[in-house]
Amino acid sequence: MRFTILVPARMASTRLPGKPLADIGGEPMIVRVARNAARSAAQRVVVAADDARIVAACTARGVEALLTRDDHATGSDRLAEACELLGLDGADLVVNVQGDEPLLEPSMVDACVALLAQHPDCVMSTAAHAIDSTDELDNPNVVKVVLDATGRALYFSRAPIPWWRDARAAGLPALPAYAPLRHIGLYAYQAGFLRRFPQLSVSPLEQIEALEQLRVLWHGERIVVHVSESRPGPGVDTPEDLARVRALFG
After folding, report:
1. What is the pLDDT of residue 174?
2. Domain count for the chain
3. pLDDT beyond 80 at 80
4. What is the reported pTM?
5. Residue 214 belongs to domain spanning
6. How many angstroms separate the Cα of 29 from the Cα of each of 128, 158, 168, 177, 212?
7. In this structure, what CATH number is given to the domain that contains residue 131?
8. Contact 216, 117 (CB under 8 A)
9. Residues 34, 9 contacting (CB under 8 angstroms)
10. How many other CB atoms sit within 10 Å of the CB of residue 167?
11. What are the distances in angstroms from CA 167 to CA 50, 118, 139, 241?
C-alpha cells in the first residue's frame, strides 16, 4: 500500500496559541509528530501549515512542509488544498495525522490504511478504542462513536453514546458490557474524496456537535472504523496536556 501522510498545523489554537511550535524535548511539537508518523509505512510525510513560521521550523529540521491558506474552516479543508498542491487525486491514499498527537502509534496509521483498502465502499477510515470509565464517557471533550455490525460508523457525538437507559434510570454505573468507543482523530481517505470534501455543504449536525466527520455521514458516505486494543498516548490540547507530554520526553 502506497500512501502519503499529511499533518495539518494551525498556529492560532484557542486553548494553546502557537501549539505547533511548542517545545517538546528540544524539538517543535510539529516536528515530533512528523518524525513519529514517518515510522509508519508511508512513502511521504508532509506538514500542511497556515503560517510560514511552521514551514520554516520544519524545513530547517528536514521535515517536508508546505504553506496553505490561513482561512480554512477545518483540517480536512486544509488537507484538500494540500492534495491539490501535491497533485494527489483519485484513488491515492492520504492519512490525516493530527499535528498535536506526538505519541500516536505508527502501526495504527498502517491499520487504518489497510482497513480502507479492504472497504472500497467507504471513502474514509478512522480509529477508536474502548472507553473504560464513566468520567471519560460523560466528558464532552471525548468524542464517542457507535458502529454498525460491519464496523462502519453510525454516528459520532460528544454526548455519552450509546445511552444505557435502564442503568442511568436506576442510578447504576453507566458502562454496559458492550463497551462504548472513544474516537481517535486519525483519518485515512481517498484523495479524490478529500479534494471533494470542501464542496460538500456543511451539515447541521456537524455545526451542533462541532465534528466535521459528521458532514461525511450526512451526505450518505461511509466511514469504516479500526477498533484498537490499545489507546494512543495523550494528545496536546491545553497547557496541562503539554506539561504531561513534556514529562514523557524527559
Report:
1. 66
2. 1
3. yes
4. 0.92
5. 3-248
6. 23, 26, 41, 38, 24
7. 3.90.550.10
8. no
9. no
10. 13
11. 46, 37, 18, 32
